[in-house]
Amino acid sequence: MRRGCESPRFAALPQAAAKALAKTLNGPLPAFCCAALLAAGSALALELRVVISRAAENPQPVAGQAMASRSTLLADFNLALAREVCRRLRARCEYSYAPFAEIIPGIESKRFELGFGNHLRTAAREAQVAFSNPLWRSSSRLLALPGAALRMARQSAGELTIETLREVRVAAVRGSQQHAYLQRVATRQDLELIELATVGDCLLALDNQEADFAFLPTLIAYLALDARARPTPIFVGPGLVADGLGGSVHIVLARTDEKLRQQLDLALDEMRQDGSYPRLWRRYFPFDMY
């Protein structure tokens, strides 16, 4: 049984100081000393403000639980991942949601220490924040109603991909990477580009037969699909990552916090090695993207 404040922290003291402190602790105030050391240790605990990209339906995290619905799956996954990372860092973490556009400015201004916003690593962002090791891979894919996909597959000589599309209407979110790509190839491939405001608008255009295909980020499109709809749009062709259409997704943090970045990457590496990361992913998503 340990006496007084004998502990790993006490054992780490220089020998002379340890002997002097031990003499004191064997006196009438051991409990007071232990309480003081414990308080000092608590004050040194890592404290992190963690921000998560918000789905429209997400409330602020309450009692450790996020909402469980398809529209909030990505935010729910990020919250679960953030909690596991904080546990492994032995950190006290304060969680909040914010719009995607506020996360990097919040990291730069030191409002937050960690940002879980599904950020692609780009040269422009590297000038603003640091990045963790990759979490998962983003890609872009075509979607279509089953009838349209079957009709175009019969007309295509090979696999139906964005490169083989001809003389069809393709919807994309205005200002997105998919929209920029279609602008470059629309004339050459005789495509009618339909510019819409949101992923939901693109899927609605398919349902209303105002577009033959939609070209969207794979995971975001999956989350926006209504599985109860009949017919339900299906994914067509392979996922694409070239030409800015995909890439690795990361946690973001301050460029100046190299120690935290190393600790964060170590925690993520451990999660992959012990299998907890893929188990966490599959709790929320039926396909692998990591």
TrEMBL record:
Keywords, ordered alphabetically: Signal
Pfam families reported for this sequence: SBP_bac_3
The keyword Signal is annotated on this UniProt entry: yes
Residue ranges of domain Solute-binding protein family 3/N-terminal in the record: 68-288
Keyword Manganese belongs to the record: no
Gene3D superfamilies, sorted: Periplasmic binding protein-like II (3.40.190.10)
Name listed for the protein in its UniProt record: Solute-binding protein family 3/N-terminal domain-containing protein
Species in which this protein is naturally found: Candidatus Accumulibacter phosphatis
